[in-house]
Design brief:
Blueprint (H helix, E strand, L loop, with lengths): L2 H12 L8 H20 L12 H6 L11 H12 L21 H13 L9 H16 L7 E5 L2 H17 L3 H4 L8 E6 L4 H9 L7 E4 L9 H13 L3 E8 L11 H11 L2 E5 L10 H4 L10 E5 L11 E5 L2 H8 L32 H36 L4 E3 L7 E6 L4 H15 L5 E5 L2 E7 L7 H18 L18
Helix pairs in contact: 5-14, 6-14, 7-9, 7-13, 14-16, 15-16
Bound molecules: pyridoxal-5'-phosphate (PLP).
Length: 504
C-alpha cells in the first residue's frame, strides 16, 4: 500500500468527515438554536435596539486562529453571549437608521434550508436556478419589462448599480471594450445623476474605470428631484465640448429623503438622446407592491435597467440585491465569458445555459433566491405592499407630530418613509449629532443622521415591518428628552442608563 492509500484507508475507517459522530446530539442542539432564534425574534422588543460593545467583548474577536476543535455547544454559547447582544439592531422595531429591513422568521428559516442544500447558483442544471429565474420572471412582470429581460441576485444595490454601469458601457462601446479595455475614447464618456443620488453611483463610475469626475451630479428641486432642464443643459454642454453622454441614473427613493425622480420624463428624455436609462430603486422600487405608491413610480417600466434590494422594504434577510435588465442580450454581452471548465452541454448537469455566471461577475453564488421566494410566496405581495404603505403612514404621523412640536423642526418634505428633522438649539449640528448617539446608546431607538443643505438632520427611515406608533412616540420622546439634556445651560448630562446586555 502506498502512503497515500494507507492514509485514505485509515481516514475512511475512522469516519473522519466533518459530520457529527452523534447526529442525535447535533439534532438536539440544532433544535435549541432554532428555538432560541425564534424566541429572539419573537421577543425582540424586550431588548435594547442596539448597545455599545464593551472592550472585553470586542477583544474576544482578536483571538488566534483556532487550530484545535471545540465543542459546538461551547461555540454556540459564545455566539449567544457575545454576538447576539451586540448585533446591528435592525430586527428591532425601534431601528430607523440608514435604510435597513427587519427580516422575518420566514426568511430566517429559508436561509437555514438554503444552507442545508448548499447550492451553488453560478450555473448548471438544478432547480435552485429555476427558483431564481422564477423571481426574475416575477420582477419582469412587476416592472412591466418585455420578454427577453434578464435579472440576477447580487449582494445589494451598490453592486447592481455597478453592474448596470458596466452594461451601459458595453452597450455604448461595444463588446470589444471587454478585450481592449477603456481606451482614450472612453475618457470622453459621461454619465448623469442627481445631487441627491446615492454615493455608490459615483463609486461605480470610479470602479468601472471612467472616474467619478465623469459622473455629472445635476441640481435637484426643493423635493430633491432631479431638475430636467439642468440635465438637458449639462448634456448639451458636454456634447458641444466633444463628450459622449451615455448613461442617466434616476432615483426611485433617494437615500436622504426618499425623493422619486420624474421617471417618465427621464425615460423619454433618454430615449430622445439615445442614453441608457438606469433606475436606482434600492428601496423605493418595491413601492410597486403598494398600489398608492406604484403610480408615483410611473416610467420605471421604461427603464433600461433597475437596481433594487429585497433586503430593505422587501424584508428579506440580508443580503438580497437584484438587477433587472430590459434587454437580456446586452446583459449577457457584458458578463458572459466562456471557459473550457465551464463548458455547456445540451444534457446532464452542465446543461441549462445561459447560467447566472453569464450575467454578473460572480461564479460561485449562494441561494439568495430561496429566502426571497419563501418571503414572496408566504406573505404574498399584497401583504408586503401593505407593510410598505404602513411605513409611509408612520412617516406621515411622525411628520405631523414634529410639525406640532415647537421644539422640533422638520428639515425636508416627507415623501415616502423617511423623516428628517432636528431639535432646535443654539448649536444644532453638535446637539443633534450628540442626541442621535445618546439615543442609540440608550437602546431606545436607532435613528441615523444626514446633512441637508449643510445642516445636520436626525434621520428616521421607517423600513422595518415591526415598527409601529409606539416606536415613533418613543423616538420623539427620546429626542425631546436628550435634546433638553444636551442644550446649553442645562444641568450636566446625567449618566445614561444602558439596558443590561441580554444573552440568549
Ligand atoms: C438609494 C440607494 N441606493 C443605493 C443604496 C445601496 O444599497 P446597498 O446597501 O444594498 O448596496 C442605498 C442604500 O441604502 C440606497 O438607499
Amino acid at each position: 500500500m502506498t502512503e497515500a492509500l494507507q492514509q485514505a484507508d485509515s481516514q475512511s475507517k475512522t469516519g473522519e468527515t466533518l459530520d457529527p459522530k452523534n447526529w442525535d446530539e447535533m439534532r438536539a442542539l440544532g433544535h435549541r438554536m432554532l428555538d432560541d432564534m425564534i424566541d429572539y425574534v419573537a421577543n425582540i422588543r424586550d431588548r435594547p435596539v442596539w448597545q455599545p460593545i464593551p472592550e472585553n467583548v470586542r477583544a474576544r474577536f482578536d483571538a488566534e486562529l483556532p487550530r484545535r476543535a471545540s465543542e459546538l455547544a461551547d461555540v454556540y454559547r459564545e455566539f449567544s453571549d457575545f454576538i447576539v447582544p451586540y448585533a446591528t439592531g435592525n430586527v428591532h422595531p425601534g431601528f430607523m437608521g440608514w435604510v435597513h429591513g427587519g427580516g422575518t422568521p420566514v426568511g430566517m428559516l429559508a436561509e437555514m434550508l438554503a444552507a442545508g442544500l448548499n447550492a451553488n447558483l453560478g450555473g448548471r442544471d438544478h432547480i435552485p436556478i429555476e427558483v431564481e429565474r422564477q423571481i426574475v420572471e416575477w420582477m419582469r412582470q412587476l416592472f412591466g419589462f418585455p420578454k427577453g429581460a434578464s435579472g440576477i441576485f447580487v449582494t445589494g444595490t451598490s453592486m447592481a448599480n455597478l453592474m448596470a454601469v458596466l452594461v451601459a458601457r458595453t452597450t455604448v462601446l461595444g463588446r470589444s471594450v471587454r478585450q481592449r479595455g477603456l481606451g482614450d475614447d472612453s475618457a470622453l464618456l459621461t454619465a448623469y445623476t442627481s445631487k441627491a443620488a446615492h454615493g455608490c453611483i459615483s463609486k461605480a463610475m470610479d470602479i468601472a474605470g471612467f472616474g467619478s469626475d465623469a459622473l455629472r451630479c445635476i441640481d435637484v428641486d426643493s423635493s430633491h428631484r432631479i431638475v430636467l432642464a439642468s440635465l438637458r443643459e449639462r448634456i448639451a454642454l458636454d456634447r458641444s465640448a466633444g463628450r459622449t453622454p451615455f448613461l442617466v441614473v434616476g432615483s426611485a427613493g433617494t437615500v436622504d429623503i426618499g425623493a422619486i425622480d420624474d421617471l417618465r420624463a427621464l425615460s423619454s428624455f433618454c430615449r430622445e438622446e439615445g442614453l441608457w436609462f438606469h433606475v436606482d430603486g434600492a428601496f423605493g422600487a418595491l413601492g410597486m407592491l403598494a398600489p398608492e405608491l406604484a403610480a408615483r413610480l410611473a416610467g420605471i417600466e421604461l427603464a433600461d435597467s433597475i437596481a433594487l434590494d429585497f433586503h430593505k422594504w422587501g424584508q428579506v434577510p440580508y443580503d438580497a440585491g437584484f438587477l433587472l435588465v430590459r434587454d437580456g442580450d446586452r446583459h449577457l454581452d457584458t458578463f458572459a465569458a466562456p471557459a473550457a471548465y465551464l463548458r455547456r452541454e445540451s444534457r446532464g448537469l452542465a446543461a441549462n445555459s445561459p447560467w447566472p455566471c453569464d450575467l454578473g461577475p460572480d461564479l460561485s453564488r449562494g441561494f439568495r433566491a430561496l429566502k426571497t421566494w419563501f418571503t414572496l410566496k408566504t406573505y404574498g405581495t399584497e401583504r408586503l405592499g401593505a407593510v410598505i404603505t404602513r411605513s409611509c403612514a408612520l412617516a406621515r404621523y411622525l411628520e405631523a407630530r414634529i410639525l406640532a412640536e415647537p421644539r422640533l423642526e422638520l428639515m425636508a418634505p416627507v415623501q415616502l418613509n423617511i423623516v428628517c428633522f432636528r431639535y432646535r438649539a443654539d448649536n444644532p449640528d453638535q446637539i443633534n449629532g450628540d442626541v442621535v448617539a445618546d439615543i442609540q446608546e440608550s437602546g431606545i431607538a436607532a435613528p441615523s443622521t444626514t446633512l441637508l443643505a449643510g445642516q445636520l438632520a436626525i434621520r428616521a427611515a421607517i423600513v422595518n415591518h415591526r415598527t409601529d406608533i409606539r416606536d415613533i412616540d418613543a423616538l420623539l420622546s427620546a429626542v425631546l428628552e436628550f435634546g433638553a439634556r444636551r442644550s446649553p445651560g442645562d444641568l450636566a448630562l446625567p449618566q445614561l442608563e444602558h439596558s443590561p446586555p441580554l444573552a440568549m
